[in-house]
Amino acid sequence: MDRETLLVHAARRTAAAANSVSPPLVRTSTTVFDSLDAYKQAQGALVFDGPRYGRSGTSTTFELQRAMAQIANTETCIATSSGLAAITAVLAAHAGPGRHILVSAGVYGPTRVFCDKEIVPSGTDVEYFAHDADVSSLLRDTTSLVFVETPASLTMQMWDVRAICAAAHDRGVPVACDSTWGTPIFFDAHALGVDISVHAATKFINGHSDVLLGLITGTLDALAGVRAYCDRSGAHAAPDTCWLTLRGLRTLAVRMERHQRSALAVARWLQSQPCVQRVLFPALATDPGYELWRSQFSGAAGPFTVELAPCGEDAFTRFIDQLSLFGLGTSWGGFESLVMPAVPHHLRALAAPADAPRLVRFHIGLESPQDLCDDLAAALTALRRG
Ligand SMILES: Cc1ncc(COP(=O)(O)O)c(C=O)c1O
């Protein structure tokens, strides 16, 4: 079955109310059992998709997890309370005194903060690697995980996931990937060799900007340690957010197509505008990551980053404040367009030189791309005024 068909049909036959197209939302903290035998079976260490206690999920959670595992073309899925909770569970499960974790430079800012403030003080050596680094030369006997995010948040640099997986697997090291940007629709992480794929379902997968949720996919073996960590730390998702995300999942493919079409239209239009120095978007043939994107992704929904010509704070403020269809906010992946100043997290403490280009991150929503370009044209005019 194509992924489009799976999105519609995955996990539906398992719905607790057998004749409902849409599964019921099951909320409970407590599961009760008919017999001691049933109780003992449910508490068994390998029971992942049957109710045990509210924290490990209800039928609503299991339906989303089964659907996501199917769509990601792997065995299993763990839902967590946010995308960041999914990332930190993966990192924490592989951390420990004397261990070494390789992390791609330019990861989502809070991922880096978690590494620096929680993982490093616990005695794990965290090393950031550049997109053109030779990973095989960085792997050590103590390396417990390679964590990559592609493209990188804000700088949009591409990492060669296939090559990283090959190098890491040669040394028996698992690879985790933050696959939020591509989603399983445009990025077949496990087919490229990724052992643990992490998604902030908060973004495209839910798509309606009303939920925080993380999803981790992989084989039962690859996720065993992460699942144990989630059980110990209580990182699990609430059934309400799983229910909403399952609803969002059904329309993921059509939304991604539309996001892609509009993002490309707006990005190409921006490339021809005065004051726009560069559009950082690997789906553009002019982008240095284009070939890698073409070989490892089947589409690109954005978001993307724009380098505006150096300008004063007043002009930059006029540009942002003039935008009326782009909300000023830090998220992406929802139905609505968003904008934010894009300073990579590790550079925020440094004062940018006055002649540095201004980086702005756009998420292109489901509005008409022509209306979005008109809005941007007015903002660019405001930027040039004065
Ligand atoms: C690439 C990436 N990964 C993970 C996250 C974290 O997701 P959440 O906001 O659900 O914690 C974000 C949030 O912006 C993100 O951009």
From TrEMBL:
Pfam families: Cys_Met_Meta_PP. It comes from the Bacteria. It comes from Micromonospora citrea. Pathway: Amino-acid biosynthesis; L-methionine biosynthesis via de novo pathway; L-homocysteine from L-cystathionine: step 1/1. This is homocysteine desulfhydrase. The modification N6-(pyridoxal phosphate)lysine is found at residue 203. One of its GO terms (biological process) is L-cysteine catabolic process to pyruvate. It is an enzyme of class 4 (lyase).
